[in-house]
Amino acid sequence: MDKALETMINNMPEKTGKTLEEWFVILAKENFEKHGVAVKFLKSEYGVTHGFANTIVTLSKQDDSSQQDLVQAQYQGKENLLPLYEKLISIVESFGDDVVITPKKTSVSIIRKKQFALIKPATKTRIDLGLKLKDVEIQSRLADSGPFGTMCSHRILLSELADIDDEVVKWLVLAYEKSV
After folding, report:
1. How far apart are CA 176 and CA 180, in angstroms?
2. Which of 113, 111, 123, 112 is nearest to 84 (CA)?
3. Around Cβ 96, how many Cβ atoms within 10 Å?
4. Cα–Cα dist 122/147, whole Å
5. 3-state class of 75 per DSSP?
6. Domain named DUF5655: which ranges (predicted)?
């Protein structure tokens, strides 16, 4: 388990009033089929913030090994892109204990209070880094969101480790800072 997620889980009783295990019991009783419905339930019925609600629901459906399995499945046949993914994760983990990394079937969401980045192996030779940068013009390598639609406002195409340079870090930091 990454450090940020561990910190979030440790802070959960203070921030939400219940432990992760107590939330699991509540969700099990409700037996939601859709992720979004369960998140909405926790937010509306218990006043849980979106970040905690999303994390609780995600963790209720999987354990650490299945999160890692999701990432491994994304990069099957694209193993050459794993060093890029790992470097991006290392960068966002350095931002603080409030970063939550949430693997999904085809991408990995990076969340603070809101999702601020999305990492997706788009092709066998490229990762698309989606960023939420409201009120930032498209410029240089910071392109239109493309297939991310409303999940992200921009994306950066990454094909090799050298592509993850100071400019990419600058945009990641800005997206992180705007996600409060």
Report:
1. 8
2. 123
3. 12
4. 10
5. coil
6. 72-177
Tell me which amino acid residue 21 is: E
State how far the Cα of 164 lies from the Cα of 87, in Å rounded to an integer.
Answer: 8
pLDDT at 1: 55
**pTM of the predicted protein model:** 0.68
Structural domain spans, the chain: 3-61, 77-178
What are the start-end ranges of the E strands in 29-177?
100-103, 108-111, 115-123, 126-131, 143-144, 154-158
> Given a cut of 90, is residue 85 above it in pLDDT?
yes
Close Cβ partners of 34 (under 8 Å, ≥ 6 residues apart)? none
The candidate with the shortest Cα–Cα distance to 88, out of 176, 180, 178, 179, is: 176
